Prior knowledge:
The chain is α/β, with parallel strands linked by helices. 52% of the residues lie in helices and 10% in strands. The chain contains 23 helices and 13 strands. The longest helix has 23 residues, at 511-533. The chain is globular and about 85 Å long. The chain binds one RNA strand through helix 3, helix 7, strand 9, helix 16 and helix 20.
Amino acid sequence: MAAGTEPPDPDPWRPFETDLLAQVVAALTAMGEPADPEVIRSLLDLEGGPQGDAALPVHRLAAAAKVPPSEFADAVLAAIRPRGNVESVSARGAYLNFGADSVRLTERTLRAVFTLGPSYGHRAPTPESACVEHTSANPTGPFHVGRVRNALIGDTLARALRAAGTPLTTHYYVDDLGRQTAMITWIWTKPLEQWPDEIRATMEGASPDEKPDHYRGRPYPAVSAYLKTHPIEAQEVADLVHRLETGKAPPEHRALAEEILSGMVRSLARLGVSFDEFVWESDFVRSGAVDQVLGRLQHAPHARMEENGAWAIDTTTYGLPKEQTHVVFQRGNGTSLYVSRDVAYHLAKFARFGWVIDVLGQDHQLHARTLNALLAELGEARRPEFVIYQDITVPDGGRMSTRKGSAIWLDQLLAEAVERARQEVLARREGLSAEEVEHIAEAVATGAVRYHILRVAPEKPVVFHWEDALSFEGRSGPFCQYSYARASSVLRKPEAGSPPYAFEADRLVAPDEAALIRLIARFPRVVEQSAHRAHVHSIAGYAHDLAERFNRFYHAVPVLRSGDEKASRVALVAAVRQTLGNALDLLGVTRLETM
RNA sequence: GGGCCCGUAGUAUAGCUUGGAUAUCACGGAGGCCUCCGGAGCCUCAAACCCGGGUUCGAAUCCCGGCGGGCCCGCCA
């Protein structure tokens, strides 16, 4: 192959496709058939059929030529000349199957992996900046597993977008206004001995040493229930809400929210989830941005004042559900509502970012449409992109609910997962230090949890089962980690030598090798697609496929025990390790050199 | 009542955007594989596109209608 100096194409499959397309077009042209490259491209199946690396069903072309499909396929076969990166063509029925030049593909793929290393699968930076807002749970208590789906989808999408070249900022929108946080402040600003008995009972056995989200969040469900039957206290909370919304929060309010939030964020950090910025809803009230929005909305095309002085937008023209003929954006008492504050927040995001993405649970679907309607009323042309995911429910039906007591805490899940992982490690390995055991157990546990939640497409509902969430085998995070550790183990052996790994592409032609290389080559497209379509679960699927392919190769083909092929196979193992590692990084699953 | 999402082997999932050949992978089930580079592994087998119409040469995929599950429809967030 020519000059090793030119930078490798980051997408190893591209030259094959370029050549293939050109050759098909040339063949059709030679046959006197119309050959619009865009049309041909849309017909090509580049995932490859059962017979090769790419397939072309010719039914449509044959119909246009008024020739039976299989006859047409044979005619194209006779007219086409495979060369360059295309090695073979064959016809089967109405399908043409193409094979890539394996040696060139291998050369290109391994060279790209070794040259780009941790950046293999990543793209060059693009100019448009983006903001991903996710999680944004009210700071009123610990995360339950249902909420974690938001955090993991958002965090992984952010990783994928960064890999795809997007300059990205992540946001956690902290809702410190409204009833939820008001209830927390209401109860905690009273001395414990003044708490109503049924609320104080929830503090039984509590210790201030608990994580603050658990400790401060303890009375929340009881407070919520209590207020339903105690109108006087409910009024106190309502008054507090009014103070919050008019920028007159008591000093303890923000501190309590921050304290609880710190505990929540600590749990997410164990899962590798972090945020660039925390954006506080109250800041938009304080800065006057919300008042500005209210003022502008009052002059919006479909604005009108209700009987008691509240303001609303007539939304009948926005295609919202029939019942929702108007959206109130300002109360009769002059204060703002959640949507109007969200409008202020989004205007601020539009001012800074070219692309605004919100990860929302399905219960926020209508809110999203309402938000869009208000943005339209303001004459704002831009819209956020919503990534909507379905709930994680508990087996006996229903969402996880803190108030109903059906929630499974993230911390509880992690504790159980770590304990199981520790047992596994102790059963399998000896001679590890206590720190090593803990490190592996933590990585396996968090890897299992992250992978388990990420592997399902966001639009699918998920029922939580402990056994599945804690599985370390099959389609799981630990399975991927295991394969990575196994590849690492091979490369650590003295016989494996050390990088840079030299290889001869024509020695990697066994079926298990060819299949593995093709999968490695696909990685950049998987990343690009999953970022583009906000389908991060396909990265999880890819990591499993790659790990599985590697295990098959490993069992079928000797590496260190082989002869002339040894160096090339070691290089292939190194390429697998790099690619699988990059995929694990995107998933936020910790790489383990040993486990 | 209206709106949005989902329905694929016993269980759980991929494929659906852009229709194409034998529908992916796992758990569970049946049967195999460690004198061998890590058995959290590998090999073989059985097993699925909710129902009914439509469009099409061709439908898991697109359209319509059912049925089943989830969520939403507040001067809450």
